[in-house]
Amino acid sequence: MLEKLAAELARRRLTGPALTFLEMSRPLNVLGSAALHFFTPLASTLADPVALKRFAEFLEQRGSVELLIAIVEEAERAQVSKPPDPRDP
Q1: Number of domains in the chain
Q2: pLDDT in tens, 36-57
Q3: Which of 25, 52, 53, 55 is deepest in the core (most CB within 10 A)?
Q4: Which domain holds residue 29?
Q5: Could you tell me if 72 and 10 are in contact, meaning their C-beta atoms sit under 8 angstroms apart?
Q6: Does residue 28 belong to any structural domain of this protein?
């Protein structure tokens, strides 16, 4: 799930803003997890509630933001090393 999100961020060239956001929110990851748990009933109309719960539980763990940053950086390296897709704008 995280790799898919990171690949999409890299494909859309949004890794810079995503990494900046993750670095800034690093001290608040437990608060973000609690907010996800709180808003799951409302957010489940837009996203898979099981995936939201799993992501909230992931954020509760120490080192989760660092792992997410590493996954996004790896997706960026993979995107840069592959040839450009002519269908991308």
Answers
A1: 1
A2: 999 999 998 999 999 999 999 9
A3: 55
A4: 2-81
A5: yes
A6: yes
Q: Following DSSP, what letter does each residue of 16-82 receive, concatenated? A: HHHHHHHHHHGGGHHHHHHHHHHHHHHHTTTS-HHHHHHHHHHHHSTTHHHHHHHHHHHHHHHHHHS
Q: How far apart are CA 67 and CA 88, in angstroms?
A: 28
3-state secondary structure of 10: helix
Give the pTM: 0.77
| Neighbouring C-beta atoms of residue 1, cutoff 10 Å | 10
d(CA 8, CA 83): 16
Q: How crowded is residue 72: how many other Cβ atoms within 10 Å of its Cβ?
A: 22
